[in-house]
Amino acid sequence: MKTAALSLIAATLAAVFPVAATAQTPEPAQGKRPNIVVILGDDLGYADLGAFGSEIKTPNIDALAREGMRFTNFYTHATSSPTRATLLTGIDTHRNGLGNMDEWTAPNQRGADGYEGYLKLGIPTLPQLLKDAGYHTYMVGKWHLGKSPELIPRARGFERDFSLLDGAGSYWDMTNFTAAAPQSVFTEDGRYLNKLPDDYYATKTYTDKMISFIDANRADGKPFFAYVAHQAPHDPFHLPKEWRNRHVGEYDKGWDAVRQARLKRQIELGILPAGTELSERMWFVPDPVVLAPASRAILGKKMELYAGMVENLDHHVGRLVDHLKKIGEYDNTIFVVFGDNGAEGTDLFKMIAGSPGSRDFLFGAINWSQTHPNAWGDPGSYVGYGPMWAQVSMTPFSQYKSWTAEGGIRNALIVSGPPVKRMKGSINHGVLHVADIMPTMLEVAGASYPKADQDKKTPALMGKSWVPLLAGKTESPRTEQDYLAWEIFGNRAVRQGEWKIRWQYKPFGSESWELYNLASDPAERKNLAAANPDKLKAMTSLWESYARENNVILPSRSVFETLEDQLPKRVSDDKGYPPLIYKQQFVPPKDMVAEPAP
């Protein structure tokens, strides 16, 4: 019975993956081809690494930056699964099946081509093509691109895997978020797991597994592609006790002071130009100086946990790097390190659990009941850090994950290894996109992409190779005429050269097109739409072309459709206003103080 079932699955996979047979396997490149390691942080912010201005200690990732290059204008998508789908296919989300996240597909998008909610069948993937070209292909961590047998990592080109198929969950066990789907789903080497290893902790276990995969095939001398898709530092903030108290009290000073310090370091490092301003503090976030010390301390503890998670992530990145050095593979490995979208400022758990009395609220109260601060980080606790700290993670940019402001879509990127021919530690300001990883790695590996079909079953790649850029032959893979575009949940944006337009739901946006010059205003403080109607018209024309060519279906429902009613009215952020709450106690001159007359 089992044999018959496995045969049926194998036949199904063969039927839905005709693409692999059409790809030409190139002749091996001269010399040994480099290994490829992609390290993806989940909700890791632009400013969360030491190499990008953070006070968080990330010596192992910083070392990769010193050995390679940092990129300051690298874009992903505003949310997780669209970024991952683009990373693995090199084509736009509205064509690869993640036109919207599966969790939030709108009624008018259901059943539409490009909105399947999983990585679309028949589209070539990076691991498939690298495998065809003679690479071992390994994955650990979060998948978030489909759960049925034909959609899991093994079916999409990964030879070995240990994967969380869901978008998030506990770091300690299989606890998921809702009563409808109470248990997270994992696979290992194409089989669904009924339990996790006894000593399971996500970040550690993923690293252990990847090291074991690499070691298992070392003897054959073939290069490998390792996709290390960490959960960390996505909430809930779970981490071992010894990692929780590395920043005690450090964040009690509040988010404004930490943002200012990070921006100062970014300018000193050359990440941002002198004179760069911080984006406005979100209007519904208080100035920390008006909060009571106890409130600042409890909110600061959330950021302490987050910092610990980032440092733990860095520790395990270091374990992998050290292992590659030990086995003699480090010098022949290209590393690509980045976060999948902006930092998470939304209370995801509140959004999922809903209101008291609901099914999911009860599920949360039972399964995520460890609410005391002393238990934060333990199994059964759920901590996120909120919009105030998400803005810190995205210093100096505006907003955060799920929005098409820079804080939702711009990320720190580090690349090191043999293809990097520039001076070690270089910083580049060219405009890059996550879709570029596919053509870059195919070129590095001496692999090829199948010829695009006229009927678009095999779409043309949208990305551009970084190989000339890494070699110092150009400063950007894009010209001033090239443009990038985004749409998720109805929020949308276009960047061309130094100009950007964005349309966002109220109250984060104006529900009209806004225009910004990112060269002079990376924080998107000055909307130039009214002053530059011709530029706005030209940019909106690019959006219309993009939407038409990529089958963009604007959603009839948005996850943010009621947000304007839930938040206070949007107002500008003017320092020291209103004066009333900042006025200090008046203290008269000492020589004029007297006792009352008898």
From TrEMBL:
Keywords: Calcium, Hydrolase, Metal-binding, Signal. SUPFAM superfamilies: Alkaline phosphatase-like. Residues 1-23 form the signal peptide. InterPro entries: Alkaline_phosphatase_core_sf, Sulfatase, Sulfatase_CS, Sulfatase_N. Residues 34-447 form the Sulfatase N-terminal domain. It holds the Pfam family Sulfatase. Gene3D superfamilies: 3.30.1120.10, Alkaline Phosphatase, subunit A. The conversion to 3-oxoalanine (also known as C-formylglycine, FGly), of a serine or cysteine residue in prokaryotes and of a cysteine residue in eukaryotes, is critical for catalytic activity. The modification 3-oxoalanine (Ser) is found at S80. Coiled coil: none annotated. PROSITE patterns: SULFATASE_1 (PS00523), SULFATASE_2 (PS00149). GO terms for molecular function: arylsulfatase activity; metal ion binding. It comes from the Bacteria. Belongs to the sulfatase family. This is Arylsulfatase. It comes from Crenobacter caeni. The lineage of its organism: Bacteria, Pseudomonadati, Pseudomonadota, Betaproteobacteria, Neisseriales.
